[in-house]
Amino acid sequence: MVDPHRSPSTLPAAGGVMRFLHAPPTRRSVVWGSSLVLALLTVMVFVIHRVNIHVGRRQVLRNLTVTAHLASEIIGETLGHVLLFERMLVEQPDFRTAVQQQDADQLRRLLQHFLPLAPGAEAAIIVAPSGAVIAAYPDRPELSGYSLMHDEGFLGAQRGGWHASVSAVHLRGGESLEKVSEVVLPISDGHEVLAVLQVQHRVETIKSWIQKIRIDPGGFLYVVDQHDQLVVYPFQVLPGQPKVVSNWPPVAHHLSPEGGSLMFRGGRHPERWLAGVYPIGSTGWRVVAVQPEREAFRVLHQLFWPMGVLVVLLFIVVIVLGLRWVQVQRANLQLLQYSDQLAKALQEASRQSSGGPPPAPQDRPNP
C-alpha cells in the first residue's frame, strides 16, 4: 500500500536505488575491479622489491667493509710481525757489532738465521746511510757497488726523518723486474743511523695472505699502496712498473681510520658497483672489496620476476572467477524473475478459478 502522506517524487528515486542494488554485475565492472586489484598488487610487489633492494644494498656495503677490514687486519698484522722480528734482530749485540764493523759475512749468516722467522720474507738487505749495500741474503752479487739511495724503501724510511715504514710497491733493485715491497727499519745508535734493514716481500706472497677471502658472487679484493699503485689484484697485470690506479673511485675516495663504503659506476659497461674500503694501519695502504650490484642482488632479481608472473596468474584467475560469478548471478536473477512471473501467473489463475471475474471498480462519490 502506498503511503498517501509520502511525497510521490521520492518513490522513483527509491525504486532506482533498489534497482541499482539488485542490478546484475556486468563484465565491465568485473574487469575494472580485477584491474584495480592487479594495479594494487603490482604496486605492492614493486614497493616491497625496492625496499628489499635498499635494505640489501646497505647490508652488502656493510659486509664489504667488514671483508676489507678483515683483509687489512691480516696484512697489517703480518707486516707488524715482520717489523717485530726486525726489532728483535737489531737489538742483538752480535748483529749491532757486525753492522758497526760492516762485516758482510757475519751479517749474511745472521740474516740467514733470521729470514725464516719473518712471515713471508724472501730477502733481506742491509744498506748504509749513503745507500751502499752492506750485505744481502740471499746473496746478490749484482748489488755489489749498487746504490739504493733512490730505492723506494730507502726513501720511504728517510722521508720526514728516519723511521720504520712499509714501502710502496717497486721493482726489485738491480736488473730484476719483479715487484716487491719492503718493511724497513733504521738501525740507530743513539741519534746516529748506522744502517737500514730492509726485508722484502714479493707481491705474490702478499696476495697469498688474503687469497682465501672470497666475495661471492662476482666480487673480489685488491690492495693499493700509499702511491695508489696496485699491490694485490686478482687479475693479470702487465709486467713492468706498478700500475697506478688513482682514478679508480674506491682509491680516490676519502678514507677515514674506520674505513668507508661507496657506490660507483665503472668497467666497460656503466654498471653499478658496491665497494668497501679499509686502511692498513698507518702504512698508507688500503684494501678495497668490490662487488657488482647486479651480482649482489641476483637472488632478489630472480625472485622479482616469479612474483610478477604470480601476480599476472592471479589476475587471470580473478578475471575468470569474476566472469563465472557474473554468469551465475545472471542465471540466478533470470531464475528469480521466472519464478516471480510464474507465481503471479498462478495467483491470477487461482483468482479466476475461485471467484469468477474480478469485481469492477466502483466510482468514488464526489465530496
Question: What layout of secondary structure does this protein have?
Answer:
Blueprint: H1 10-21, H2 27-90, H3 93-101, H4 104-114, E1 123-127, E2 133-137, H5 152-158, E3 165-166, E4 170-171, E5 179-189, E6 192-202, H6 203-209, E7 220-224, E8 230-232, H7 249-252, E9 260-266, E10 271-279, E11 286-292, H8 293-296, H9 298-355
Antiparallel strand pairs: 1-2, 1-6, 3-5, 4-5, 5-6, 7-8, 7-11, 9-10, 10-11
Helix pairs in contact: 2-9
Describe, in short, the structure shown:
The protein has 367 residues and is of the alpha+beta class. Helices cover 48% and strands 18% of the residues. Helix 2 packs antiparallel against helix 9 (298-355).
Keywords:
9 helices, 6-stranded antiparallel sheet, 367 residues, alpha+beta
- Distinct helical segment count: 9
- Termini separation comes to 23 Å
Overall pLDDT, averaged? 82
The shape, in one word, is: rod-shaped
**What composes the largest sheet?**
6 strands, antiparallel
Quaternary organisation: single chain
